[in-house]
Amino acid sequence: MKEINIFHDAINDGKALASKIKKTDKKIIGYLCSYAPEELIYAAGFHPMRLFSSKSDIILAENHLQSYCCSLVRGVLEDSLSGRLDYLDGTVFPHTCDTIQRLSDIWRMNNRYEFFWDVILPVKLNTQSAKNYMVDVLTRFKKDLEKASGSKITDEDLNKSIQTFNRIRKNLSKIYSLQTKNPGLIKGLDLYALVKGAMIMDRDEVCSLLPKIVSRLEQMNTQKNTAKRIVISGSICDSPDIYQALEDAGGVIVGDDLCTGQRWFEGKIMEDQEPVLAIASRYSDRMVCPAKHIGPAVRGENIVSLAQKTRADGVIFMLLKFCDPHAFDYPYLKEFLDKGGVKSMLIEMDGQLSSLGQLSTRFETFTHMI
Amino acid sequence: MITAGIDIGSITAKAALIKDNKLLATQVIPTGYDHLGAAIRVFEAVLRKAGINKKDISAIVSTGYGRASVTFADKAMTEIVCHGTGAHFLNPEIRGIIDVGGQDSKAILLSQDGKIQDFAMNDKCAAGTGRFLEVMARAMDVKLEQLGDFGFLSNTPSKISSICTVFAESEVISMIAKQEKREDIIAGIHDSAASRVAILARKINIKEPVVMTGGVAKNTGMVEALKKHIKCDLIVGDLPQETGAIGAAVLASKL
């Protein structure tokens, strides 16, 4: 599909994408986490760009971050220090996991870009006081952005931005539910390209492309798919080979619980509320990442209900090595799945997948077993 | 009906023939660089051994690290599935399998009817695999086959703290430099490798009776160390290395 190819082109050449955006005189603001308030960045006239590691060898970052930090954080720092992110005008670090916080300090001290912000999120997001606090934090960040851009962010700017992101999220959700209904309708690799592309491409372009993809998918002839239905859970899954390997092993992705997936795009921002409050409300409503607290059972119940809703045959945890928030949650999530009768498997990934053979063996055995 | 299983491992290639649910013959050869070539050679060798003509084989399943290279097989299945099937075929009582091969180590949990219930596999790292023992045998200047016997001579195994093959090798070399007893170091090597494999067994809550398969089952020192670390008895059958190929042949008979 030609619309999907645009997403593939964008994610395959980040540098070309950045220079295309630069030509529109937009400043590029990078971030590493799904908790970054993209709506504010976009409303300020900047381009929000999620950062992923280029997976180059770690040389310069080694002086700052030890090998027990995750490959995402080490990889992005390496990209920055070696000049591969020189197109950035600034970065924002929402306060989530410890490693990203440490990266924020190192980033600030290396001072390579014009703008730098920390957005200090509350630890709990779903209480009233957290919501009030969140409104304060977002209002402050809004002011910082206004100072950086030199112009005010009006409610009209914010509402337009909220509508754009709502539309992107709604269409990604639609694509996912079409896939759940007719697994294999869209290849895992394409699904990955759409979600990743939506985090880095021009959002107006994404907003106009996604509905076209939805309607094309809706018109497609569906075939009966006998592949095993799989839900992926974890933080980021930025290894395209995994999707192919999973499909080759007789699996098909019917849903996910990823920072680079449903956890990022689910939920809607109310369009009839005061905009900053509305943005803060989405944070308190959305399923948390394990770096945030919401009670001992919520994520466990959520993964079981996701597996049931998507009629999954099994759940594969794809965790980045050394990601402690996710590693801490894994045992109890598995316990919930075991109790719910859902088979699961844990795969620990490094940035670079050097052992695809072993991975295929695990995938094939898992799809055979479930 | 005669069916064949071909297991292309990282170090050895194995083949097995099954006729009417009975094992006819097995064969083991080194794999080398050419996976398909090794598959053809081991297949022809097992046919010769059993005195059977190629055209009498009704189905072939390939397995192991090089399973996709066996282009003449009817189906490729993972070594985990094949070791599970093979172990169940050889002894239907078996519930747990510890398979330590050249490149991977695995723990497999079987249901009563021989289906895979759960499994765990070592990560990229080679610690706790046959390759690890091979590297260590070289560092200790003993033949791989002698490693097991040497380990039995020790009363005070050395402590090897590194879990990485490369680091463990340099640790072993510094022990050699300190002139620690060879048998102590070798017993320490077995302990270190076994402790890695025991983690896999614990991950899946392995159930007894447990059988050990894979080439490393031939190393008696390693088997003893594993018993200690997994805290259960380990059965070593007559054909540990060939279990995967046998399982593949059984699966071929059900195609």
Describe it.
- The complex is a heterodimer of chains A (370) and B (255).
- With 370 residues, chain A is of the alpha/beta class.
- Chain A folds into two domains: 2-156, Rossmann fold, CATH 3.40.50; 167-369, 3-Layer(aba) Sandwich (Rossmann fold).
- Chain A is 53% helix and 12% strand.
- Chain A has helices at residues 2-12, 14-22, 38-43, 71-81, 98-110, 128-149, 155-181, 188-200, 203-219, 240-248, 262-265, 275-285, 298-309, 324-339, 356-369, and strands spanning 28-31, 47-50, 90-94, 115-119, 228-234, 251-257, 314-320, 343-349.
- In chain A, helix 4 runs parallel beside helix 5, helix 6 crosses helix 12 and helix 13 crosses helix 14.
- The mean pLDDT of chain A is 94.
- Chain B is of the alpha/beta class and 255 residues long.
- Chain B has a single domain (2-124, 197-252), classed as ATPase, nucleotide binding domain (Nucleotidyltransferase, domain 5), CATH 3.30.420.
- In chain B, 40% of the residues lie in helices and 22% in strands.
- Chain B has a five-stranded mixed beta sheet with strand order 3-2-1-4-5. A five-stranded mixed beta sheet of chain B has the order 8-7-6-9-10.
- Chain B is built from eight helices and ten strands.
- Chain B has helices spanning 35-50, 79-90, 130-140, 147-152, 165-177, 182-203, 220-230, 243-252, and strands at 2-8, 12-19, 22-30, 57-63, 75-76, 96-100, 105-110, 116-121, 210-213, 234-236.
- Chain B is globular.
- Chain A binds chain B through residues 348, 350, 354-355, 357-358, 361-362, 364-365, 368-369, and chain B through 65, 77-81, 104, 115-119, 121, 123-124.
